[in-house]
Specification:
With 730 residues, this protein is an alpha+beta fold. Helix content is 51%, strand content 19%.
């Protein structure tokens, strides 16, 4: 509620109307007193509702109160006419059945008022609330003009005519009251015309309800002229003595004409203070207050201190028009208001300091911090989120905007690159989750910002009011991209370390097996050769076994040495011209030496010597790669065929070795070229070997600028491929 001078005027008018109704009812035995009491009660109700409407702070509440006031608005003119008939002694409207037809039009208008939103016949529109007067202007429609204005003016016209005729007919008897009664009938006319012509003391202020109350009191004065003076002290006690403000009346010589209890308390004077005394000679508690009361200034403020207490008074001087040089003084204690204002100012200052401190802390945080309303629009952001994510010019730009706005703005910078900026899409889903559950949560949000992948650790929680109602979301986010990268690298390093440890274990197991087995064979057969009774044939067989063990041990040592050379980077490529057809004849000896009676067919897919395909390549390394592949094919194949060949394809030449051996499981294809890896890695494996051959072959192929791979079906066979660049062809 907002109280203005206009609302105060309406309140006083309503109180006056209530007093008038009470006084009239007290003389209900007089002709017209009951009707006048009802009329003034209706006017008081009307004025009081208009007072509430003038104090309301929203257009909706003002319209609702206006509708409520129309109960009296449409019936007061009828009650006025009933009073006039009763006053002039007519019996035409002396019963309810006779009055009811007069209320048909007001009843229709009342229905139109409460259904105005459907047809706008009463009010077509409303002005905004005036900041100075807290009033609105009602723009009336055709229903108001016909149903209210014309009809009420007819009733008022007829009432005025009846009064004027009565006064003329009884001029001698009612000479002193005649002009007052006529003036009373004119007051509502003048107020209504002023309102309709928009000629008011302030725009939107309706004097009509107050004018009817004035008319009623004028009628009381005219009817009860002698008794009215006896009623004034009662009205004064009801109105003035109970006011919280101090009221004083001084004449031109500062003599006290009237004073209420509140003013006595403020001055600290006794009840026995006599009227007519010079106020300047009265002993009071606060000399400053007395000095301010004697000053003719229209408005002033005074501070009065007594001990630890300090009072602040606002003093208004209003000249009395009826008594020249006299003035009405209103003293209002505004100490509490001043204290409240100081407290509000201090609270605002504390809030401002806290906000500035919070803003400083928030803007210096490396983490992103924000808050959103229920529509997921930003209501607070810190500098980090503006710089790192939103690309906002300052912390004010994002206020009232959503994350989608900034996503689209960044994407529009690079419409050809959908991955330029997509971070924040899933944040809207987690926002909805927080609003629905009302519980805090921790989320991993990822996406691209300016084309760079970003991983953020996000904490969100609902914002609640003092009643627990969710008002929005607060969140903070930290960039953990590097942390996630380090974690991933640690996992990979851990896996590599575990794999290295496994390979080392396998290597030691293989080396133990590959060295101990041939050494045992060599030592064992050498011991047998020292036996005195062995035959020549046995000696030859023992010799062959010793040589085989030595060759196997030598191959293992050579593989280890070669692997060391690869790791140290000592391998060099020694290119020379090679006719690829000759390679097959070099490899053929491997077949004939390692077949050992196996049922294997050899298929040659090399070019014919006459094709004269010559390339530049490291002969030894190429031969070593093919030899390793062929040895593996022979070792792991018992029957079927082994196919070896090559094919020239543009600037590259590809070789392949295909067998019908045991094959390789799919889960071993990835690491078959790693060191010390075998399909069967157990100590009791069927096939011998250190597991270094394929890793050495891979190193040779790659150092010559090629690549090697395998295709295999477990149990059916394998095909190894490798290709090399062709440096020269003929």
């Amino acid at each position: 509620m907002v109280f203005t001078i206009y609302s105060l005027l309406l309140l006083v008018t309503a109180l006056v109307a209530v007093v008038g109704a009470f006084l009239a009812w007290g003389r209900r035995t007089s002709k017209g007193a009951v009707e006048l009491s009802i009329l003034l009660t209706s006017a008081a109700y009307w004025t009081f509702i208009v007072f509430l409407e003038s104090s309301a702070t929203t257009v909706e509440s003002k319209i609702l109160l206006s509708k409520i006031s129309y109960i009296a608005v449409v019936t007061t003119p009828v009650l006025y006419l009933v009073f006039v008939y009763r006053f002039i002694g007519s019996k035409r409207l002396n019963s309810i059945p006779k009055v009811l037809p007069m209320l048909v039009v007001p009843f229709i208008v009342l229905i139109l008022v409460w259904t105005n939103e459907s047809h706008h016949l009463i009010w077509t529109s409303f002005s905004p609330i005036d900041a100075n007067s807290n009033l609105i202007t009602y723009h009336h429609g055709i229903g108001f003009i016909i149903g209210y204005l014309i009809y009420n003016y007819l009733l008022m016209s007829w009432s005025t005519f009846l009064l004027a005729r009565f006064i003329i007919e009884h001029q001698k008897k009612f000479r002193s009251q005649g002009w007052i009664v006529l003036l009373a009938s004119v007051c509502p006319w003048v107020a209504s015309i002023f309102y309709m012509l928009d000629v008011n003391i302030v725009e939107g202020f309706d004097l009509t309800p107050g004018s009817i109350s004035l008319s009623g009191f004028l009628f009381i004065f005219a009817i009860l002229k002698v008794r009215l003076l006896n009623l004034v002290p009662i009205a004064r006690e009801a109105l003035v003595e109970n006011l919280l403000e101090g009221i004083l009346v001084l004449d031109g010589l500062n003599r006290l004409q009237d004073i209420n209890q509140a003013a006595r308390n403020q001055l600290g004077v006794e009840q026995a203070l006599l009227l007519g005394e010079d106020l300047s000679r009265i002993k009071v508690h606060h000399a400053k207050l007395l000095e301010a009361l004697l000053s003719p200034e229209s408005q002033k403020y005074v501070e009065c201190t007594e001990g630890d207490n300090c009072k602040v008074y606002k003093i208004n001087n209003v000249p009395l028009r009826t008594k020249p040089e006299s003035r009405l003084i209103v003293v209002r204690d505004i100490t509490e208001t001043i204290e409240n204002q100081k407290e509000i100012k201090q609270s605002e200052e504390r809030y401002r300091r806290l906000y500035n401190m919070f803003r400083l802390m928030a803007d210096n945080m490396p983490d992103m911090l924000w808050a959103k309303d229920l529509d997921l629009n930003y209501i607070f952001v810190n500098k980090a989120i503006c710089d790192q994510l939103l690309k906002a010019t300052d912390t004010e730009e994002p206020i009232g905007k959503s994350m989608e706005y900034f996503i689209m703005r960044e994407q529009n910078k690079r419409p050809d690159d959908p991955k330029w900026f997509n971070f924040g899409r899933n944040s809207m889903a987690t926002d909805d989750f927080i609003l629905q559950t009302g519980q805090p949560g921790v989320f991993d949000e990822l996406g691209t910002i300016d084309g760079k992948f970003t991983y953020k650790d996000v904490h969100k929680a609902p914002i609640r009011d003092e009643n627990g109602r969710v008002l929005g979301i607060v969140g903070n986010s930290r960039d953990v991209t590097l942390q996630k990268k380090f974690e991933s690298e640690l996992i990979v390093a851990k896996e590599r370390a575990e794999e290295s440890n496994r390979l080392k274990t396998a290597f030691l197991a293989n080396m133990s097996h590959e060295i101990r087995t041939p050494m045992n064979s060599i030592l064992g057969f050498l011991s047998l050769m020292q036996e005195p009774d062995i035959t020549k044939e046995e000696q030859v067989e023992y010799y062959k076994s010793v040589k085989a063990g030595g060759d196997r041990l030598l191959n293992t040592i050579n593989d280890i040495i070669e692997l060391s050379r690869i790791d140290s980077g000592e391998l060099l490529v020694d290119n020379s011209e090679i006719n690829v057809a000759e390679i097959y004849f070099i490899l053929y000896s491997v077949f004939t030496r390692d077949l050992n009676g196996k049922d294997l067919k050899i298929i040659n897919k090399f070019p014919k010597p006459t094709d004269n395909i010559v390339i530049q390549c490291d002969r030894d390394k190429l031969t070593s790669v093919l030899t390793n592949l062929l040895k593996n094919a022979v070792k792991y194949s018992k029957k079927g065929f082994i196919e070896v060949g090559c094919m020239l394809q543009g600037d590259r030449i590809s070789f392949h070795v295909k067998d019908t051996g045991i094959g390789i499981p799919q889960d071993h294809l990835v690491d078959i070229f790693e060191r010390f890896v075998q399909v069967d890695g157990s100590n009791t494996r069927t096939y011998e070997g250190s597991g270094l051959g394929l890793s050495i072959a891979k190193a040779y192929v790659e150092i010559m600028g090629g690549k090697i791979w395998v295709e295999s079906v477990f149990g059916e066979g394998s095909t190894f491929f490798f290709e090399l660049p062709v440096n020269k062809t003929a």
